[in-house]
Known about the structure:
Layout: E1 4-5, E2 8-9, H1 10-22, H2 28-41, E3 48-52, E4 60-66, E5 69-74, H3 77-90, E6 117-120, E7 125-128, H4 133-136, H5 143-155, E8 160-161, H6 167-177, H7 182-188, H8 195-199, H9 212-231, E9 238-239, E10 244-245, H10 249-252, E11 258-260, E12 274-276, H11 281-298, E13 303-305, H12 319-336, E14 341-345, H13 347-351, H14 358-365, E15 373-377, H15 385-388, E16 397-401, E17 413-414, H16 415-428, E18 433-438, H17 447-455, H18 459-462, H19 466-478, H20 483-496, E19 498-499, H21 531-543, H22 548-579, H23 583-604, H24 612-620, H25 626-639, H26 661-682, H27 689-708, H28 722-733
Parallel strand pairs: 3-5, 7-8, 7-18, 9-13, 13-14, 14-15, 15-16, 16-18
Antiparallel strand pairs: 1-2, 4-5, 4-6, 10-12, 11-12, 17-19
Helix pairs in contact: 2-3, 5-9, 6-9, 6-11, 11-12, 12-14, 19-20, 20-21, 21-22, 21-28, 22-23, 22-28, 23-26, 23-28, 24-25, 25-27, 26-27
Amino acid sequence: xxxxxxxxxxxxxxxxxxxxxxxxxxxxxxxxxxxxxxxxxxxxxxxxxxxxxxxxxxxxxxxxxxxxxxxxxxxxxxxxxxxxxxxxxxxxxxxxxxxxxxxxxxxxxxxxxxxxxxxxxxxxxxxxxxxxxxxxxxxxxxxxxxxxxxxxxxxxxxxxxxxxxxxxxxxxxxxxxxxxxxxxxxxxxxxxxxxxxxxxxxxxxxxxxxxxxxxxxxxxxxxxxxxxxxxxxxxxxxxxxxxxxxxxxxxxxxxxxxxxxxxxxxxxxxxxxxxxxxxxxxxxxxxxxxxxxxxxxxxxxxxxxxxxxxxxxxxxxxxxxxxxxxxxxxxxxxxxxxxxxxxxxxxxxxxxxxxxxxxxxxxxxxxxxxxxxxxxxxxxxxxxxxxxxxxxxxxxxxxxxxxxxxxxxxxxxxxxxxxxxxxxxxxxxxxxxxxxxxxxxxxxxxxxxxxxxxxxxxxxxxxxxxxxxxxxxxxxxxxxxxxxxxxxxxxxxxxxxxxxxxxxxxxxxxxxxxxxxxxxxxxxxxxxxxxxxxxxxxxxxxxxxxxxxxxxxxxxxxxxxxxxxxxxxxxxxxxxxxxxxxxxxxxxxxxxxxxxxxxxxxxxxxxxxxxxxxxxxxxxxxxxxxxxxxxxxxxxxxxxxxxxxxxxxxxxxxxxxxxxxxxxxxxxxxxxxxxxxxxxxxxxxxxxxxxxxxxxxxxxxxxxxxxxxxxxxxxxxxxxxxxxxxxxxxxxxxxxx
Length: 737
């Protein structure tokens, strides 16, 4: 027999057979997909074979069983990852979560795929993250957290992630090379948890100086992040120069056109930012310096995020000015990188919509080639700005689900409305509708909504009715097909997940107490379902034959929300007793409310996600000296409580029901409130501004001491079994709800 078969040697045939059998990677894409599978499913990856498929005009994957192995092919590693996730979700009944502690429990025998599956991407761009996420969730992450999360993004088909870690490390080099001192530069930055708002030109200097150990560590971390994202066919969106400069730069360039911006969100002028006019030659010079240095260290995929006027007023609202300034910014980018594309948040067109009239939006967006832009329609579950702006006048845009403000822990989201809006955008959004994305401010307690949104970017999610999708979700969260779990999730979708996201969504337990309307600006505890619905959901889940991390999380999460809702009801009874002058009734209700806080503290203590101790431990891990560790801890505590230095606009904006935070900071506030109100009742006095202000002064002092003096130490690992705790609390409160 000839040793050549159709031009291929017998040795080559044997090699291909060995490769197919043993899953030896044949190129960079299959190698990346195989490595991802090993990280995600462990030993089960030995029975999963990846194959590079021919390129096409769209991303796609195929999935089938052949000779007892799972075969996944795709046009690149990202598509193969989506194929793997499809197999995990719909055949293995497991869900790979976005946090490091979210592990999958694979079946002992891999299920077969009865019929071959082929699916393709409906849009080319799939975006994820928000500048704020880097403060509310990710500031303290190490490489292990990022590695896990990047795998989650790949599994969900994300190919355009925001990648802004380590930019201060570049800016430190730029500013010191231009002549500023180490002290001037590190005092210009904020603390790590507040850096997103420094990057968006909102605040300088808060929690300065930024330690050098942070700058060094973040530089190395960003190298790993961008390398892995590219390995999985993502194009990291890197930062570029938006005009934000240290005010001390005026010492070196006294004639440069610099303006101090208005103080933001209640901060004093001391923390206001300085803006360099993009029309100046110095702006173009700094842009070039930054892009060159960033490219040298992190590489580039030629997509840059720049936001000039996020929650800020431009120097002029004249359309001609807005057109000139955007054109100049683009030209500075193009001078540094001729292939540059400018990505912008569309938040300003929503948040300051009374100013951004269509003539201004058009001038701002069309002063340079539309094909050199990408626009994020930021908050589409609330308002689709593309519908108000003639589809952004032809600029390519991405439909985005925001979903969370401040990292609040509140069951919310509307599967049906979100799905309907996405489908209508496919039908009506125009040729410049290019992608699906999520712009969450913080990772929250509703991860499945983001997975639903990202699946809508693929035909795997488009051809499923919502009821079928929810049924599959129930199987994944429970770990198997279970009638009780399916009934629970149908009830959740039909009653609880029927309202969109708004800022300040939180139960009363996390809000600064008051009689009547909450005094904290961002306080919204409204819900559209009966708490009895949630009790029924919990009862069904407790009867389900569940297993795995997702099932345990859901039990704790739903119990937490159910108890917090009941706390809201008790607060109403407390106010009624106060109005009736019933002091004994007040004391009875306040005692029960404090017990509810203790019970919430217990159930959330079973989950890593809800641990203040983990947040603090992660923050301290970035310090080298004890002084640095304490600095990072204070910054971590500050963001999730007062946000700034006192009783200001953003107080409690990042409130969250976390173990430790709930049991100390929130509980003590309520104890102080009950003492003040009950003293008022004993005196027969009204709860007026004088009484509130005296109590508020005491609470403000305590809130500051909680983060500044580091009050309390908390577990950084889960305590107790969530099913046992949830069952005990279900039985305890069943007759009350």
